[in-house]
Amino acid sequence: MTNLQKLTLNHTVTEASPSACKLLATISGLPKGRIKDAMNKGAVTIKRGKKTLRLRRAETAVKPGEELGLHYDAALLSLKAPHVSCLEDRMGYSVWFKPAGVMSQGNQFGDHMSILRIAEIQLGMKREVFLVHRLDRETRGLMIIAHNKKMAAVLSNMFQEHKITKRYRAIVKGKAPEKITIDTPLDGKPSITHVTRIAHEETLDTSELDITLETGRTHQIRRHLASIDHPIMGDPKYGKDNKNRQGLQLVAYALEFMCPIKRQQAIFALPEPFPRKP
């Protein structure tokens, strides 16, 4: 089983063991080194009572009745997490730039490729991290991370009450309308996307758009733009004839809100959402 590429395993402990790592290696057939790596990258869980937590320490003792979960994906675990940039640290929260390919938060197969875990490690594992909003894995851009439960609740409520303005830039196929509001429902729910064309590249027949949202449905921008026949360039899921070598051309480039710490308007923005080549 050492060449196994993907495995999901759930095991209820029947006999006490001084090492969760050794027990999982025995059950799965995977070498202990791979189990340790999976644990470090968040792919192992332990359920004690009603709580399920990521288990990272290899030599954690386990007791009868506890449940171990191993979600092993060799391809995902082989990925190396990039260094991410922190634009601003206001202690209660910080603002980061999430590169394309990095998840907002981890899943059952691990969290080492998530902005939340990367930020936690870069901050020296000394501060709590809480997710208050999300970006698609393929989308790059600005994200806010809270550092205590109270601030996480405040910022989450601000997002829900539309007190935080998020601005996006996208490069889409074709000559998009100068200004349009797309209100096609998504997943049976009201969905509103405001779009302004800021440039049209005739040679490539693409448009650069500035976008704001009134709602936050899954893949809302990508689905709405594809629905009016102007899919985002490089979108692997929506639209057709929109492939490129640069990946998804969608950037969350600005955040504007009343800072709950300084009590003054805060604006964070990328100077060039789509840097031009010299």
How would you describe this protein?
- It contains six helices and 14 strands.
- With 278 residues, the protein is α+β, with helices and mostly antiparallel strands.
- The protein folds into three domains: 6-77, RNA-binding S4 domain (Structural Genomics Hypothetical 15.5 Kd Protein In mrcA-pckA Intergenic Region, Chain A), CATH 3.10.290.10; 85-161, Pseudouridine synthase (2-Layer Sandwich); 165-252, Pseudouridine synthase.
- Strands 5, 6, 7, 8, 9, 10, 11, 12, 13 and 14 form a ten-stranded mixed β-sheet that branches.
- Strand 5 (85-89) and strand 6 (93-98) form a beta hairpin.
- Helix 1 (20-28) packs across helix 2 (32-40).
- It is globular and about 65 Å long.
